[in-house]
Amino acid sequence: MKWQTLASQLFPQGHDIVEHDYFLHGTAKVDQQTVAVIGTTGHTSIGVEIALAQANAILDTMRNFPGRPLVILVDTQGQRLRYRDEMLGINRYMAHLGKCIDVARRRGHAVIGLVYDQALSGGFITSGLMADACYALPEAEIRVMGLAAMARITKVPLERLTELAVSNPVFAPGAENYLNMGGVEAIWQGDLASCFARALQQADSIDQRSARGLERGGRKMSLPVTQLVLGTRDVLPT
Q1: Would you kindly state where each structural domain of the chain is located, as residue ranges?
Q2: What are the CB-based long-range contacts (under 8 Å, 24+) for 210-218?
Q3: Listed residue (206, 72, 79, 198) closest to 128, CA to CA
Q4: Neighbouring C-beta atoms of residue 59, cutoff 10 Å
Q5: Which InterPro entries does the record cross-reference, listed alphabetically (predicted)?
Q6: pTM for the full model?
Q7: What is the pLDDT of residue 51?
Q8: CA Rg, the chain, in Å?
Q9: How many CB atoms lie within 10 A of CB 39?
Q10: What backbone torsions phi and psi does residue 25 show, to the nearest 5 degrees?
């Protein structure tokens, strides 16, 4: 879906979102309140420029409009894999973006993420996955690492990973699998404006992803291990 079509459906009360070099920013009206919107489009990779632009937009919102909700529209093929960006410290730029989102949440800004097209690797981890809750459209393509790349890193044969992906969402891409793991709160269909308004009302700064993953059967050990580390349970389930 093109971002212009998405914005019209999400914000029928009006918006002033603009695109500059694949970076989206602006404001929109939702139930008579203003929300700040940042994001990416065109399957762009996240280089130092876009990471810094998104971080600056969040800082400007915190400085000038305390408490204003933040919306992150996600369409990215991940971090930019270029020598220049690596030498400039792309990891620090992306960490800076993630920290800005976290500071905004701690200061009372509700943060909603929406994957409307692609969401890959580090470009997703430091944007949509940093939100209070991340949502997706049914056609969204979500993955942190492709199976071929995973096979190269883990030395597990691609055929075995492909077999595991059939029954285990941890190994499989797609919005439905990330829903089962708790990384995606819900998949939106139908009236997107109503879906967004409801998500804004339900926004909660407490991280529920491990609990959601356990409830949905996609991540059965994350919450028990966390509880064991925190000392709120004695043993892991068998």
Answers
A1: 3-137+188-205
A2: 210/182, 211/182, 212/182, 212/185, 213/180, 213/181, 213/182, 213/183, 214/182, 215/182, 216/179, 216/180, 216/181, 216/182, 217/180, 218/169, 218/170, 218/177, 218/179, 218/180, 218/181, 218/182
A3: 72
A4: 14
A5: ClpP/crotonase-like_dom_sf (IPR029045)
A6: 0.89
A7: 95
A8: 18
A9: 28
A10: -160, 155
- The amino acid sitting at 68 is R
Q: What tokens were used for 225?
A: 């291990």
pLDDT at 110: 95
- Specify the CATH class of 3-137+188-205 in words: alpha beta
Task: List the pLDDT tens digit at each of the 238 positions of the chain.
Answer: 899 999 999 999 999 999 999 999 999 999 889 999 999 999 999 999 999 999 999 999 999 999 999 999 999 988 888 889 999 999 999 999 999 999 999 999 999 999 999 888 788 888 888 999 999 999 998 887 778 878 888 899 999 988 888 877 777 778 888 899 898 999 999 999 999 999 999 988 888 889 999 899 888 888 999 989 988 888 888 7
DSSP characters over the chain: --HHHHHHHH-TT-B--EEETTEEEEEEEETTEEEEEEEE-TTEEE-HHHHHHHHHHHHHHHHHSTT--EEEEEEEEEE---HHHHHHTHHHHHHHHHHHHHHHHHTT--EEEEEEEEEEHHHHHTTGGGSSEEEE-TT-EEESS-HHHHHHHH---HHHHHHHHHH-GGG--SHHHHHHHTSSSEE--S-HHHHHHHHHHH--SS--HHHHHHHHTS-SSHHHHHHHHHTS-SS---
Alpha-carbon distance of 54 to 17, in angstroms, equals: 13
